[in-house]
Amino acid sequence: MHSRRALLTAALGTALTVTLPAGTARAATGTTYYVDSTAGDDSAPGTSTTTPWRTLTRVNQHTFQPGDTVRFLAGGTWTGQFAPKGSGAEGAPVTATSYGTGAKPHIAGDNTVPSAVLLENLRHWTFDGLEITNGTGSTTWRVGVEVRAKDIGAVPGITLRNLYVHKIDGVAQVGSGNIGSAGILVNVRGNSVPTYYTGMLIEKNEIADTKAYGITTWSTWMQREGWTSLWGELNIPSGEYGPFKPSTGLIIRGNHVHDVGSGGINPNQVADTLIEYNTVARPTSTTTNVGIWWSGADRTTVQFNEVYGARFGGRGLDCTAFDADASTHDSLVQYNYSHDNGGGFFISVSLGTAPASAIVRYNVSQNDGNEIFTFSTNTDGVDVYNNTVFVGSSPSRPLYKIAQVYHNPKNVTFRNNLFVNQANLAYDTAGITYRNNLYQGGPVPPDSAAITGDPKLTAPGTATSRTDLTGYRPLSGSAAIGAGLAISGNGGRDILGATLPTAVAVGAVEGLPGSYGAPVASTTMGTGQGSIAAVVDGKESTSWASPVDVTLPGSITIDYRTTRRIASLTLATHFGQGQGFTRVDIQTWNGSAWTTRLADATVTWAGNTSTVERRTLTLPTPVDTSQLRLVVKAANRQWGNIAVNELTVA
User: Fold this and answer.
1) Cβ 348 vs Cβ 329: under 8 Å
2) Considering 26, 154, 333, 454, which has the largest number of Cβ atoms within 10 A of its Cβ?
3) 401 and 372 Cβ atoms separated by less than 8 Å
4) Percentages of the chain per state (helix, strand, coil), in multiples of 5
5) C-alpha torsion 194→199→204→208, nearest 10
6) Nearest to residue 203, comparing CAs of 280, 284, 276?
7) pTM for the structure as a whole
8) Strand ranges in 157-287 using DSSP code E only, listed in sequence order
9) Which residues contact 55 (CB under 8 A, 6 or more apart)?
């Protein structure tokens, strides 16, 4: 959002001009206008529910000001194109929405206009709660909502929310597609002034029955890394393209895109984009496209999405759930659920000299077809770890390989993944390093630390939605639990939201806390009597004691093997006045270092008999940690050694 200055003039005898600091948004309540398709009158003021306008023609004639709102009556229908004038301002957008009760107001292009809604060269607009169509069954390519800009620089503040965009005309024929046609199309043309969107939000919309795309964005400011022009169906002159200038901060969230001919969600020429909590169902009905894909994109995060039902278009012909495509850098694909897609789960492919790099982690693929992972031209640096892939024994779509290589990708790694391969699919190896993956069924590729034990999953292959993935949780005794390699910056959680323990499981889902086994205790002080394991065995009748010549300070460390919340530590000791700890620190592990949570805590014991006493030390605030360390600084040493029976946290 750009800053601006606002001037306020007050009549206090003489004119007084007050200049607000740069970045201060002008307070603007704006005017509300009403539109009624049956009882309205275009000659009326339009400023109340009793004096509404009637037609889109009248609405399009008006130039809106910051803070204005135009409200269409619920249940009404307007045929033609809604193409407003006038921009909002930071903190005071212009809003198009509804009033009254009933169905969403309906803007019906009826194949009479290229776009049913056109927002051209405008800033700070919000569309909320409208129905948009643009079809009569024609084969002419049409658009539902088009946001367009050309040679005007930054375009901030566009929000598209709660829209129902459907019935968008185009060619319903296999092999036909047009990225210039979509339910929601955001585009930039021109090459004289670098133009780009900032902070655009596309959320909670339903897009359905479009012959081409669901949601797509692209820009003529796209040239880099050998990629010089966009797709031929756009018919953009070759001289119109300019150097890469991406739109920034785009969020595509919570949308339901279904039954579309081409791609479901497809941002291009973007940076720092977030694509999350969307459902894409049955995309690519007429083209070999992808459920969610992105190109000309830096630092794209794709998470918590569900994609399913893409058709099988042929071997090596997309139709996957996800695709890091041409000129994509630092993509992050995590916590997604892909199932029943004819082309597979994930593809990486590029154009020109542009490498495609990504991290793909903590996703579940269930009964996807074709090639589950595909790595093609200019893939360089894709790290695939802690995913769970389930391929059933009776596939309903063609299947070829778990991992397929085309055109010499390099620097692809598979680590900590769990493959349930009931269809006995093969794995390509060129350019791929496999390490520490668990393989149940089928062949095992060259893997320096392959795991082939039973993962003991709860109910694999039975998930019905992204929120129903507990069937992939490993049970106690699973070969997956605690078997994962330590990977720095792993996100800290699994696909179900469980905090990752120090020793992570293989696959996308961690086991329940009780499945990790008993805590493990160790000490720097050595052992004179008993066992250090006794301090975490749950029995106060067993104990550990140091050697007689122990040097303090020394420590006892407990690894809980999973993250848990600790608010207090209880020491249980017999003969406390003779060998109990009297001054201690409590430390917790934050993943990379120890942090002292309680320093120089004093412990006083009342007796010196075989009766066990307990003393509880409470932390200032509870801490989530996988390991605890008790640093013993002083102790009673009547017999030379020191001892403790049990250490319990709560």
Assistant:
1) no
2) 333
3) yes
4) 5, 45, 50
5) 10
6) 276
7) 0.80
8) 158-161, 164-168, 182-189, 196-198, 201-203, 206-210, 213-219, 221-223, 242-243, 247-248, 251-253, 256-260, 265-271, 274-276, 279-281
9) 35, 37, 40, 42, 78
Tens digits of residue pLDDT in 471-523:
999 998 899 998 999 999 999 999 999 988 888 999 999 988 666 667 889 99
Contact 616, 646 (CB under 8 A): no
If 0-12 CB within 10 Å is exposed, 13-18 middle and 19+ buried, where does residue 11 land? exposed
The residue ranges of the chain whose pLDDT is under 70 are 1-28, 352, 513-517
Euclidean distance between CA atoms 42 and 136, whole angstroms: 27
Distance CA 317, CA 376 (A): 11
Helix (H, G, I), strand (E, B) or coil at 650: coil
DSSP E strands in 282-416: the ranges are 292-298, 301-303, 306-308, 320-324, 328-329, 331-334, 337-339, 344-348, 356-361, 364-366, 370-375, 379-385, 388-391, 399-405, 410-415
CB atoms inside a 10 Å sphere around CB 600: 11
What's the CA gap between 19 and 29, in Å, rounded? 19
Decide: helix, strand or coil at residue 278.
coil
- Rounded-to-integer distance, Cα 161 and Cα 149, Å: 20
Q: Which residues pair with 324 in a beta bridge?
A: 294, 348
The per-residue pLDDT for range 99-122, each reduced to its tens digit, is: 999 999 999 999 999 999 999 999
Coil, strand, or helix at residue 598? strand
Q: Measured between alpha carbons, how far apart are the two ends of the chain, in Å?
A: 47
Block residue for tokens 């078997």: 483
Q: Which two tokens stand for residue 447?
A: 């893997």
- Peptide bond connecting 620 to the previous residue in cis, omega within 30 degrees of 0: no
**What's the DSSP call for residue 63?**
B
Cα radius of gyration (the chain) = 31
Residue 511 near residue 475 (C-beta atoms within 8 A): yes
CA distance 527 to 454: 37
Neighbours of 316 (CB within 10 A): 16
Q: Annotate 387-415 with DSSP letters as a single string.
A: -EEEE-SS-SS-EEEEEEE-S--EEEEEE
Phi, psi torsion values for 457, nearest 5 degrees: -75, 150
What tokens does 26 get? 């002008």
* Residue of 531, 573, 526 lying closest to 551 (CA atoms): 526
CA distance 68 to 347: 45
Residue 172 burial (CB count, 10 A) = 13
Three-state secondary-structure class, residue 169: coil
DSSP string, 15-59: EEEEEPPTTPPPP----EEEE-TTT--TTS--SSTTS-B--HHHH
